[in-house]
Amino acid sequence: VDECSEASSRCEHVCTNTQGSFRCSCRPGYELHIDSHRCVDVTTCELRNGGCDHTCTIGAEGHLHCSCRPGWELAPDRRRCLDVDECGDFTNGGCQQVCVNYQGAFNCSCHRGYEPCVSLHVRTMECVLLLTTVTVPLGTPVWAV
Fold first, then answer.
1. Strand extents, DSSP E, 19-137
2. What is the C-alpha end-to-end distance of the chain, expressed in Å?
3. Long-range CB contacts (< 8 A, 24+ apart) of 43-47?
């Protein structure tokens, strides 16, 4: 039985009959889709996201372009996305005291005895000293506290 001659093969480009089955393949410039039947242009984002880690788009000239989400930058291969170490530059991520980098983002925190004070006007986080109140019995000298 020639499975390629039957409608069930559904190969988009080339159908090769095998013993008891069939195999689809594609013409040059195309790769077989994950469904094993359709063929996808290798310059398209449909096939494995165009090889891009994050976002794949097709430019006006028809070429594939990869881009990365915030907190990531495009690697020299123009496909992979690498974590941006916001804490590793001279700005310390905009953190006044402690900057902790993690994949795709970072957090600011304060040393013990300080609390965060986030400025709405500037993209920084400052730390302010915690004020503690001490209750002393009436008549106790201040230097004894």
1. 21-25, 30-32, 39-41, 55-58, 64-67, 72-74, 81-83, 98-102, 105-109, 114-118, 125-129
2. 98
3. none
Q: What is the mean pLDDT of residues 87-95?
A: 87
pLDDT in the model for residue 73: 96
Residue 70: name the closest of 104, 106, 94 by CA.
Answer: 104
pLDDT tens-place string over residues 125-143:
788 888 766 566 676 665 5
User: With contact defined as beta carbons under 8 Å apart, do 85 and 99 qualify?
Assistant: no
Query: Residue 64: exposed, middle, or buried by beta-carbon count in 10 A (0-12, 13-18, 19+)?
Result: buried
Q: Taking the alpha carbons of 87, 90, 95, 99 in that order, is the dihedral positive or negative? A: positive
